[in-house]
Amino acid sequence: MVTRLPTNRRRRSGALMTELLVAMAMMVGVLLPLAYSITSEKKLARTAFHRAVAMEIVDGEMEILAAGEWRRFTPGPHEYLVHAVAATNLPPGRFLLTVGPDKVRLEWQPSAKKHGGPVVFREAKLK
Fold first, then answer.
1. Torsion angle, CA of 83/78/60/58, rounded to 10 degrees?
2. 112 φψ region: left (φ > 0), alpha (ψ -120 to 50), beta (else)
3. 41, 77 in Cβ contact below 8 A?
4. pLDDT at site 124
5. According to DSSP H, which parts of 67-103 are helical?
6. How far apart are alpha carbons 97 and 7 in whole angstroms?
């Protein structure tokens, strides 16, 4: 047994369905950009955190190198091993020490892009 709605109720039902579809479209139109902005802000915060950790490590190691530790290295670029526990918070990358005739430079280079880029915090002039 099939019953039909009266014409008046069908119109109201159709209008309600149309209103529901418009409301859902408006919600999607508002929530998608909001979700994207939250995601991009999260990535930005993570990148800033990685840069801050790398800067802190480079700064501490440069203090040690400037105090005379640089003499252990020959001129040219060298892979530099850091013993800071905070380095575990960094994405894969390497610390690169460059000893020149008149200065020492230490930098962190991430292996993958979009991780803050290389960090060159300090260069020390040699005496």
1. -110
2. beta
3. no
4. 76
5. none
6. 82
Sign of the dihedral defined by the CA atoms of residues 110, 121, 54, 78, in that order? positive
CB atoms closer than 10 angstroms to residue 95: 21
Distances (CA, A) of 38 to 31, 34, 112: 10, 6, 22
> Residues 92, 102: contact at Cβ < 8 Å?
no
Q: What is the pLDDT of residues 97-109, one digit of tens each?
A: 999 888 899 998 8
Given this model, what pLDDT does residue 79 score? 93
Is residue 55 within 8 A of residue 95, CB to CB? The reply is: no
Q: How far apart are CA 104 and CA 17, in angstroms?
A: 71
| Torsion on CA atoms 118, 107, 82, 57, rounded to nearest 10 | -80
Predicted TM-score of the model (pTM): 0.71
Residues listed for the chain: 127
Burial letters 47-61, b for 16+ CB under 10 A, else e? beebbebbbebbeeb
